[in-house]
Amino acid sequence: MSNGQMSKEFFDLVKSIGESRSKQEEDKIISREVAVLKSKMAAKNVSHHKMKEYLIRMIYVEMLGHDASFGHIHGVKMVHRPKLLEKRVGYLTVSLTLNKDHQFMLLMVNTIQNDLRSDNFL
Q: Where is average pLDDT lowest: 40-44, 77-81, 109-113?
């Protein structure tokens, strides 16, 4: 997923969902994707690049109406990365998966305040 391109796995996911013939078939594909994402996100030493891709795939699952809150902690961690694109993916993930009463919201408020106070304007 470098230079704005989708990974083959993400492309195949979008394609298979688009080609599904019923809601049940789509749900089965998404359930399989959720299991894969949970497994891959829980692995040790996942690169930041791969985690960013997994979070984008998780956002896609959330957009289709399925619960993707299993990865919100990874979104919170991504918000603390120095690269702007990684931060953006982290903030987007958190905004989609955390409800307003979640215990991580206080952490996110503090993180936003720190980012706003930062000298790094990127």
A: 109-113
